[in-house]
């Protein structure tokens, strides 16, 4: 989930906002702590260590909850509502494809094979909700098909990440106006 944070920082910089003001307040540090944990978990996966992968859904839940601090502190109520709509849409899209594929989320790795993030036996080792996609996969366009080399996302996952972008960008915007 580092992509929406980087995009929010880049977009804010392009818009002329001062990014460093974000780091002068304690409210961003719970979010950054979870980002660091996310990076550590991705490095572990790259090194064939799947010990904590079973906790990723709980981890993502708590990660998104850390944004409540920013929402409350900077009164981002409208942004939170808009972002929450994206979370709901993303969750619905993911649940639709999972239901259509017998409770599993098909994954179509491409670039991740080259980077080493996914190996030929990864899905056999992990044994979670994700399975390797095939020709019998239903609703392929909603499955995990967007491969960035260290993460494979669905359209639903991208919708969920929009929430992070909206909250972080608007936090930077509010901080710059005060």
UniProtKB/TrEMBL annotation:
<protein>
    <submittedName>
        <fullName>DUF5317 family protein</fullName>
    </submittedName>
</protein>
<dbReference type="Pfam" id="PF17248">
    <property type="entry name" value="DUF5317"/>
</dbReference>
<feature type="transmembrane region" description="Helical">
    <location>
        <begin position="78"/>
        <end position="98"/>
    </location>
</feature>
<feature type="transmembrane region" description="Helical">
    <location>
        <begin position="148"/>
        <end position="169"/>
    </location>
</feature>
<feature type="transmembrane region" description="Helical">
    <location>
        <begin position="26"/>
        <end position="45"/>
    </location>
</feature>
<dbReference type="InterPro" id="IPR035168">
    <property type="entry name" value="DUF5317"/>
</dbReference>
<keyword id="KW-1133">Transmembrane helix</keyword>
<feature type="transmembrane region" description="Helical">
    <location>
        <begin position="52"/>
        <end position="72"/>
    </location>
</feature>
<keyword id="KW-0472">Membrane</keyword>
<keyword id="KW-0812">Transmembrane</keyword>
